8-amino-7-oxononanoate synthase
Amino acid sequence: MQKEPQCCHKLWKNFAYLRQLFKEKLSHLQLLFSESPIFCFQLANPGNTLRVEKQLISAGIFAPAIRPPKVPTSRVRITIMANHHRKHIEKLVNVLGNL
C-alpha cells in the first residue's frame, strides 16, 4: 500500500461508488453496516440467499451466500477491490436489480 497508494484510493473510490448505487438503485436491499470494502446485504431466508448466489455466479459475479449458523442472518457478501472497474460495479447492480 505504501508503494502504490493509488490502489488504496481506487479501492475506497469503488467502495463509495457501490454504496451510492445501492442507495440509488437497490434501496430495497438491506445493506448491513461495514467500514471495510466488504458489502453484505441481508435476505429473508437461506433459500433466497442461495438462489441469489447462484444467479450472481451465472452472471460471472462471485458473491457467496453466508447463512446461519456462521452468521445470525442470511446474507450475500460482496468484496469490492481496487482492480474493479465501474462497468463491473454497474453490472453487479444491474444483476441485483433484476432479481
